[in-house]
TrEMBL record:
GO MF entries: RNA-directed DNA polymerase activity
Keywords: Nucleotidyltransferase, RNA-directed DNA polymerase, Transferase
GO biological process: cell adhesion involved in heart morphogenesis; larval heart development
Species the sequence originates in: Limosa lapponica baueri
Coiled-coil blocks: none
Record lineage: Eukaryota, Metazoa, Chordata, Craniata, Vertebrata
Keyword field contains Manganese: no
Cellular component terms (Gene Ontology): extracellular matrix
Endpoints of the signal sequence: none
UniProt protein name: Rna-directed dna polymerase from mobile element jockey-like
Length: 127
């Protein structure tokens, strides 16, 4: 799973405060999969994440209108890419656990992300 997530990182996204760019992780996915898997597993077992993964650089992004008006900006938090990968792994584990335990009733399935929506978000998986 780690390898797949690394290989499908969006290289056009920005790096977080740790300075690790998604392109580096994507291009070195084969080499980094094992060490990151160990870090993720240890983090899961002890219930803590590296401090750097909790940090964010908050950047103002201009929405529209006059650039000298602070109200025309929205804050964007740039977080650690390895931290985001771990979040995806945890989300996947939670969703699988909920599916296995049949926590979500059939009437609630429409609120989940469908396979089609996932594929639309990752067009390179279709190639």
């Amino acid at each position: 799973m780690v390898s797949d997530l690394l290989q499908h990182l969006d290289t056009h996204k920005s790096m977080g405060p740790d300075g690790i760019h998604p392109r580096v992780l994507r291009e070195l996915a084969e080499v980094l999969t094992k060490p990151l898997s160990i870090i993720y597993q240890m983090s899961w077992l002890i219930g803590e994440v590296p401090v750097d993964w909790s940090l964010a650089n908050v950047m103002p992004i201009h929405k529209k209108g006059r650039q000298d008006d602070p109200g025309n900006y929205r804050p964007v938090s740039l977080t650690s890419v390895p931290g985001k990968v771990m979040e995806q792994i945890i989300l996947s584990a939670i969703m699988q656990s909920m599916k296995d335990a049949q926590v979500i009733r059939p009437s609630q399935h429409r609120f989940l992300v469908s396979t089609g929506q996932v594929l639309l978000g990752k067009p390179d998986l279709l190639l």
